Amino acid sequence: MKLLYYTLVLYFSVVACSTQKTVAPAPPKAKTFSNGAVITAHPLASAIGVDILKKGGNAVDAAVAVQFALAVVYPNAGNIGGGGFMVYRAHNGEVAALDFRETAPSWASRDMYLDRDGNPITELSLYGQLAAGVPGSVAGMVEAHKKYGSRPWLQLLTPAIKLAEQGFAITAMQANEFNEHEKRFKALNPNGAAIIQAKAWKKDDLFVQKELAHTLHRIAEQGREGFYNGETADFIVAEMKRGNGLITHEDLKQYKAIWRQPIVGAYKDYKIISMPPPSSGGIAVMTLLQSVEKYPLAKWGFQADSTIRVMVEAERRVYADRASYLGDPDFYSVPTAALLDKAYNQERMSTIDFNKATPSAAIKARSIPGYESEQTTHFNIVDKDGNAVAITTTINGSYGSCVWVDGAGFLLNNEMDDFSVKPGSPNMYGLLGGKANAIEGGKRMLSAMSPTIIEQNGQLKMVVGTPGGSTIITSIFQAILNVLEFGMDAQQSVTAARFHHQWYPDRIDVENEAISPTVRQNLEKDGYPIFKRPRIGRMENIIRLPNGKLQTGADPRGDDFAEGY
């Protein structure tokens, strides 16, 4: 009860502060901590992570506790019914990448979402049981803890169990989202779910999830077996049978989280460590940085005319390659070395014209012989010893498939939409894909998730990540440049307005405050259509300062919160 009381007190203090901000808005300031820092999408999850650090847990221990806490307090993206990626850097410089991305059920097939004429049936890959891939989050946390954890497994899950059992006060943003999705929740969950109630949700309502608490108890007591076998597995398979889902007991038993070699490269005198395929993020972020490295971005300035043109043209070329060459490396030979050829990437930029846009139709994927919901969530943790974790985790669309596993109390993902349902047809984020990302049983769908850690002179410099579907890559790209080129602190780097280009559709997506009116006008005149859109991503950033302290930036676009000690 002590932890629950502490976290609730912290939460209400944060809510009070945010209420005051609406009266007199002011840019959030970076926070600085001496011993450890945690940034997540929800203040309660951040508080739980810091509590684990204070009790002697390391960054991975805190990450496990945070992952399960987010499954309770942030159901639209935090999860045990989805998957994700972890990038880890130990204080001694050891690096690792953990792939706990979902997989296609064994019965999945290439054309499963097409009609008789071969056209995609959009709803099938987005909502309902058929949209779900085999979840990887629980296996991922078990694997991370087994390799790097130091505290007892049960201790790390207890805070999440308490929050699910006793409930927590929802935020205003969550109340709005619960109400907006009510009709779909009711349609897809005829037996009900904790999120469905007779009256509209409002800020500070208590959200209690008894079924989820029981599921977390099983995981706490049995580890992996508490999810992929036994009662929880039975609930999942029964849910498949209620709809038209494909996940079987055997799919659950066979699922494995995989340790992979991270993408490691250089930008000037910085070492970039990011996620390899089946995430496209590491390769794409590294390629973007290589593409702009020779340009005087710092001299031109933040979102200056020339800066925007160079960044957009780099993005256009990188997303073209993403569509053709990236997929699950266990099923497809990803040409990583060719894609990360710095000389080629820089030479490719020589074709840009500062007086007019390059039409996306003129950009093709490079010739190599032989050959994501924006409701993801990300969190960063650095402990007192300097171990760092960046985790991006997702159920894809907001609230995933909108199917709550009856009896188990958690949401299933709709990650199957991240495959190329039909090569050349866009997914829910407008991303195009090719044969490399075609549906096959047991295969992992391509992702844009890009958890990234940066070193300078052998020391930890920065831990960064964001949700945002197809915008993840470009948001990470901008946050890195905001710090390394434009001198922003951790908070400024995530607060700064963002823009996005992904090859197709051929336009620059911009937040309201992004790119000055004069620059917008010049860009449009030269063939860069501007498309206004709501917020892009929810960035988290931790910067290690020269004095060893940890500076944090939590994105004000959501309920994100930085905490430390």
Walk me through what this model shows.
It is a single chain. By secondary structure, the chain is of the alpha+beta class. 36% of the residues lie in helices and 15% in strands. It has 19 helices and 19 strands. A seven-stranded antiparallel beta sheet has the order 1-18-17-13-12-9-8. A seven-stranded antiparallel beta sheet has the order 7-4-3-11-10-2-19. Strands 14-15-16 form a three-stranded mixed beta sheet. α1 (2-23) crosses α2 and α12 crosses α17 (472-484). It is globular, with a radius of gyration of 22 Å. Residues 1-24, 367-372 and 427-433 have low confidence and may be disordered.
Overall pLDDT: 91
Rg over CA atoms, rounded to whole Å, is 22 Å
**Low-confidence runs:** 1-24, 367-372, 427-433
For the biggest sheet, the summary is:
7 strands, antiparallel
Strand-residue proportion: 15-25%
Number of E-type strands: 19
The strands making up the biggest β-sheet line up spatially as 1-18-17-13-12-9-8
Q: What structural class is derived from the secondary structure elements? A: alpha+beta
Distance between the termini: 21 Å
Helix content: 25-40%
Produce a short descriptive summary.
This protein has helices at residues 2-23, 43-54, 59-73, 137-148, 153-166, 172-180, 182-188, 210-222, 225-228, 230-242, 249-254, 281-292, 297-300, 305-325, 336-339, 342-348, 472-484, 490-495, 517-525; strands at 31-33, 37-40, 83-89, 95-100, 168-169, 206-207, 258-260, 263-267, 270-274, 376-382, 388-394, 452-456, 459-465, 499-500, 508-510, 530-532, 540-544, 550-554, 561-564. By secondary structure, the protein is α+β, with helices and mostly antiparallel strands.
